[in-house]
Design a protein that fits this description.
Blueprint (H helix, E strand, L loop, with lengths): L1 E6 L2 E4 L4 E9 L6 E7 L6 E7 L5 E3 L7 E6 L4 E6 L8 E8 L13 E2 L3 E6 L1
Parallel strand pairs: 2-11
Antiparallel strand pairs: 1-3, 3-8, 4-5, 4-9, 5-6, 7-8, 9-10, 9-11
Length: about 120
């Protein structure tokens, strides 16, 4: 099993930056891909970004491309999501996720492990 703990959410103004972190523990050697998803009330959870845990290759949703950066801190074995130029439409609960095989990065059901979520609120 893999446990994921997110941190770094908060309330910011439009145009500000925020960095989310996710610390995996447990059977971390089994992780193939880690990603970030987000969800707002009444909507389905949507893909934000993903990273190959071994090779570092990244993939982004069109809505965040150029503003968000997903990365891995190898020394601390921690996942980050740097979010710049935030907009009110970025307001959501952000979830860290991990899976054991590459598969389709965008498919939510392929991710076996999830964090508890962290709230990001962007005011206009």
């Amino acid at each position: 099993q893999v446990q994921l703990v997110e941190s770094g959410g908060g309330l910011v103004q439009a145009g500000d930056s925020l960095r989310l972190s996710c610390a995996p523990s447990g059977r971390t050697f089994s992780i193939s891909v880690m990603g970030w998803f987000r969800q707002t009330p009444g909507k389905e959870r949507e893909f934000v970004a993903a990273i190959s845990w071994s090779g570092g290759g990244t993939y982004y949703a069109d809505s965040v491309k150029g503003r968000f950066t997903i990365s891995r801190d190898n020394a601390k074995n921690t996942l980050h999501l740097q979010m710049n130029n935030l907009a009110p439409e970025d307001t959501a609960v952000y979830y860290c996720a991990a899976k054991n095989r590459v598969g389709n990065l965008l498919v939510l059901d392929e991710y076996a492990y999830w964090g508890q979520g962290t709230q990001v609120t962007v005011s206009s």
